Amino acid sequence: MVTFIVVTLLLGLVAGAVARLLVPGRDPMGVGGTIVLGIVGSFIGGFLGYVLFGKDLGQGALQPSGIIGSIIGAVVALLVYRNFSSRGSGRNSRRYARR
After folding, report:
1. Could you give the angle at the alpha carbon of 62 between the alpha carbons of 21 and 74, nearest 5°?
2. Angle at Cα 38 formed by Cα 77 and Cα 2, nearest 5°?
3. Whole-angstrom Cα distance, residue 99 to residue 94?
4. What distance in Å separates the CA atoms of residue 9 and residue 20, rounded to the nearest whole number?
5. What's the pLDDT at 18?
6. Euclidean distance between CA atoms 16 and 70, whole angstroms
7. Residues in contact with 23: Cβ distance below 8 Å, sequence separation at least 6, in sequence order
8. What's the pTM value of the predicted model, to 2 decimals?
9. What domain range is 17 assigned to?
């Protein structure tokens, strides 16, 4: 169980970091935010992989296609996050939108 958690955190960090590198722009998040982004991306990528290709966990959890799916899911999650975080109201959201 501990190994699963460590592997999940490391893969989340890698997927989140690659997604942040692929999507241009500033993202004010630290290492923890990057890990969460990667883990959320992993769920999104896994869901999309299941819907599109019909693969499930019983066919192997750690595959190159799963890592690529995690990165694609993290990119999608990052774009959605940016879209909703820039729609805030008030003076601060307008100031950040200009940058």
Report:
1. 30
2. 145
3. 9
4. 16
5. 92
6. 8
7. 75, 78, 79, 82
8. 0.72
9. 2-84
